[in-house]
């Protein structure tokens, strides 16, 4: 194996580790910092893929990832939680060790699921689809097990990170237009979520989404 | 030729065993000295564990009236197990004659045997602290053991063998390869090392506060030569764990058996690694705070998770 492949494998492993760290994290602030780290790993791995396959447009998407997912989105989220004043601990629905065990089961499931797909994939990084799929599923699990709206949004953004990693590692990235579109979508989504948060808090006096299950017309 | 090889191997084995027994208290002294420096204290000096052992060996032993023979033999069994473990691990040379006696799984078994005896001896006297410590020790170790086994399995998968000499040989004599799985395993191993050796996030080695102590609660009833042997065994255990970590993750520079010219370099490398590891351990212990006993399962669960992730990543990526 060449060094670039080894390095991308290492980055993929770190990506998976960060997904697990996010799953086990109790504090919203640390969660957002972990999200920024995940973005950084993603950006570096995209850069390495771009370098090793000499695909020009991947350099752009690496730079875009760095700008958007490491700087802008974490800054927006930090500002959001400062304004909402929600720096308390995250309440989980299932306790953390049980969530972690479920996470391991999901990783095994994802690896098995990705094994036949990896056979079809061309290029330098075949085993990585499993890891990307696993981090998508882990982010989904995080969205399911968290009660606060903010953590669910971080889970959503992390899920997008996993998808992006799958795209760069398996197919050398999508066309630049598509990537720009997705980047813009995520940015806009974060803005809209921010507005939603204020609305939710105004209506229910809390960001706990269990309040939204009670439908009343009084 | 065969005979001289065997004799040379035995000589190496004897040398390693003696070296380990004599160096183990020094490593303990180095760790506590580093901790003292990091906490802005002057510290008791590197040789303090030796002075402690001497003092304890010179005293008269006091044994509880209702102690069974099990209580008396446990310190010897403990010391023997730890010495055996240290003899099996390749510390100064690969392929020692003792190494085929046990693979990594049996090595975990040797540690478990010592643990069972110390827990039984703690309950033997019938004091409240003894059984409290024994139960807590069992809680911690039944969580730490699977994580340790997973770490060892990851290394075994990479080198296709559960024999320590083959693992070390395969990892030491290879071209440079980045193994993400080994990095995960190393993280898990550090957590297991902290838990198994009663170091700070799980247990505080120098507390006698009844709410927090685990290891100290078990050995409260021991005195004089029995206590000395237990203290020595504890330092041997730390030495064995650290050298196991060195053997698995940074084995470079270790000598092959029978090569005298490689020996000085091997010992120098070992000492350098031990100094680094001891300082690292002291730094970790200074940075971390002791967690509540009910948080310990979560801490060790993290180790298990990391080890399993390492294993899975090795299977998926082959790296």
Output mean pLDDT of chain B: 84
Report how far apart the termini of chain B are: 40 Å
Overall morphology of chain A? globular
User: Helix/strand-derived class of chain A?
Assistant: mainly alpha
Average pLDDT number of chain A: 80
Oligomer: heterodimer
Low-confidence stretches of chain A: none
Structural class of chain B: mainly alpha
Radius of gyration of chain A, in Å, reads 18 Å
Kindly give the count of domains of chain B: 1
* Separation, N- and C-terminal Cα atoms of chain A: 66 Å
Mind describing the biggest β-sheet of chain A? none
The strand count of chain B comes to 2
Strand content of chain A: under 5%
The backbone outline of chain B, from C-alpha atoms, is: globular
Quote the beta fraction of chain B: under 5%
- H/E series of chain B, N to C? HHHEHHHHHHEHH
Describe what you observe in this structure.
The complex is a heterodimer of chains A (218) and B (319). Chain A has 218 residues and is mainly α. Chain A is built from 7 helices and no strands. Chain A is globular, with a radius of gyration of 18 Å. The model of chain A has no long low-confidence stretch (mean pLDDT 80). Chain B is mainly α and 319 residues long. Chain B has one domain (2-317). Chain B has helices spanning 2-38, 48-58, 69-88, 104-124, 128-159, 164-172, 180-196, 215-218, 224-249, 263-287, 296-317, and strands at 93-94, 255-256. A two-stranded parallel sheet of chain B has the order 1-2. The model of chain B has no long low-confidence stretch (mean pLDDT 84). The interface between A and B is medium-sized, with 25 and 21 residues.
